[in-house]
């Protein structure tokens, strides 16, 4: 078990998979031996306070991640069963364990093959399976993941969506009022894909580094030249980063993506990063990140969480269920759209649920959604490639 007195080196040596968690919370360069030597012997409580991170919440989160090993061994029996229901995909890391534990409520657990990996592992393994699928029989029965590229690229799921392989079993059930209102309609009008919740992107502002520049309130503000080389972006979180690219392109055009590239803080040479004078280090004034991570900031510190006034950009968490197996998949699908699952998403992970009866505790907060017309009228795979090219152009 990790405690406040554990050192960074001890934790990463014993649990190397936690490196991503530290990196997502602003610890950069952990692969560099010089940096690790410099800060590795510091106890976590001192290290986290120096980063203005809530010590108790962060330690609890690290220990929650470690439960994955135990759950994967005792709960997730991955021995492949013939003639069973196949469920594959990715689950957001902060809620993966409690969601996997929900499987124990199913009456037909012994007839299910499930491979639901942590979102931090990325989609490449899943994409390979979909690319090689020639027809419906080659696909899993249920897919769960966040983002756009897997589900809407022509070479991936879109070709099967167009063949009406999938069905949203819940077209008659209203969404949470946080999402179903005059300016936001998340439900798939074609009745193909179900949505479980969303991953919102918000701003975490370091007011000390920001200096006399105004705190950004909207996504348009983020594109202001005054923030060039000042922003940290979730590039390694492909689902959320792609969602940001798609939404900004939709609203502001390709020029905005190039501006975003200019805004991203430039990398420094390792020799510069380990200088003792902290003033010489490049630090982001603004970090764009999942809403979940903003709760790590200490109240009253120089770190200020900002929910964009024009709405938090969202990466949708989708569930795809086969139309041809509705009867045998219904119990599993019901579990994923239930109030209990919605509360896990919303309350444990700060991933707002679409379930009408879940209180997302986000009164007055709004979301930015690209819209189904835009999704259905664009080749998102090609568009994302073009966006990445424009982003890299801004980085040069």
Mind explaining what this structure looks like?
Helix content is 40%, strand content 14%. The protein is α/β, with parallel strands linked by helices. Strands 1, 2, 3, 4, 5, 6, 7, 8 and 9 form a nine-stranded mixed sheet that branches. Helix 13 packs across helix 19 (380-395). The longest helix has 20 residues, at 55-74. The model is unreliable at 73-77 and 267-280 (pLDDT under 50).
What percent of residues adopt helix (DSSP H or I)? 25-40%
The biggest beta sheet reads: 9 strands, mixed
Shape, principal axes of CA atoms: globular
What is the N-to-C order of secondary-structure elements (H for helix, E for strand)?
A: HHHHHEHEHEHHEHHEHHHEHEEHHEHH
Low-confidence stretches: 73-77, 267-280
Task: Itemize the secondary structure elements and their pairings.
Elements: H1 8-14, H2 19-24, H3 33-39, H4 44-50, H5 55-74, E1 85-91, H6 96-101, E2 112-118, H7 124-131, E3 142-146, H8 149-152, H9 154-162, E4 194-206, H10 207-210, H11 219-222, E5 231-232, H12 238-252, H13 254-263, H14 270-273, E6 286-290, H15 291-294, E7 303-306, E8 312-321, H16 326-336, H17 339-349, E9 367-368, H18 372-376, H19 380-395
Parallel strand pairs: 1-2, 1-3, 5-6, 8-9
Antiparallel strand pairs: 3-8, 4-6, 4-7, 4-8
Helix pairs in contact: 12-13, 12-19, 13-19
How would you summarize what this structure contains?
The protein has 396 residues and is of the alpha/beta class. Helix content is 40%, strand content 14%. The protein starts with 7 loop residues before the first helix and ends with a helix.
Features:
396 residues, 9 strands, globular
């Amino acid at each position: 078990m990790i405690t406040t007195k554990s050192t960074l080196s001890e934790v990463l040596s014993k649990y190397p998979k936690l490196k991503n968690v530290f990196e997502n919370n602003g610890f950069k360069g952990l692969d560099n031996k010089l940096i690790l030597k410099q800060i590795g012997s510091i106890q976590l409580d001192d290290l986290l306070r120096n980063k203005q991170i809530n010590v108790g919440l962060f330690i609890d989160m690290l220990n929650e991640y470690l439960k994955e090993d135990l759950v994967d061994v005792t709960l997730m029996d991955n021995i492949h069963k013939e003639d069973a229901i196949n469920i594959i995909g990715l689950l957001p890391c902060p809620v993966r364990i409690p969601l996997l534990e929900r499987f124990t409520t199913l009456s037909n657990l012994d007839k299910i093959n499930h491979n639901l990996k942590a979102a931090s592992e990325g989609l490449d393994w899943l994409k390979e399976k979909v690319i090689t699928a020639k027809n419906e029989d080659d696909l899993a029965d249920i897919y769960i993941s966040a983002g756009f590229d897997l589900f809407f690229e022509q070479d991936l799921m879109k070709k099967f969506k167009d063949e009406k392989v999938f069905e949203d079993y819940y077209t008659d059930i209203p969404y949470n009022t946080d999402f179903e209102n005059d300016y936001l309609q998340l439900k798939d009008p074609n009745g193909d894909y179900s949505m479980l919740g969303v991953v919102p992107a918000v701003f975490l502002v370091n007011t000390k580094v920001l200096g006399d520049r105004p705190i950004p309130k909207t996504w348009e503000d983020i594109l202001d030249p005054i923030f060039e080389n000042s922003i940290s972006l979730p590039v390694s979180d492909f689902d959320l980063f792609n969602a940001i690219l798609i939404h900004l392109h939709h609203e502001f055009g390709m020029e905005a993506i190039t501006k975003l590239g200019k805004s991203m803080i430039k990398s420094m040479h390792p020799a510069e990063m380990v200088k003792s004078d902290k003033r010489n280090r490049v630090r982001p004034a603004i970090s764009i990140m999942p809403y979940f991570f903003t709760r790590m900031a200490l109240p009253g510190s120089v770190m200020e969480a900002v929910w964009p006034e024009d709405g938090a950009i969202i990466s949708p968490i989708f569930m795809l269920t086969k139309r041809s197996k509705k009867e045998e998949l219904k119990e599993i699908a019901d579990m994923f759209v239930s109030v209990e699952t919605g509360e896990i998403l919303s309350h444990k992970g700060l991933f707002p649920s679409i379930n009408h009866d879940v209180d997302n505790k986000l009164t007055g907060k709004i979301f930015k959604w690209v819209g189904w017309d835009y999704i259905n009228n664009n080749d998102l795979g090609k568009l994302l490639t073009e966006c990445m090219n424009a982003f890299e152009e801004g980085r040069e």
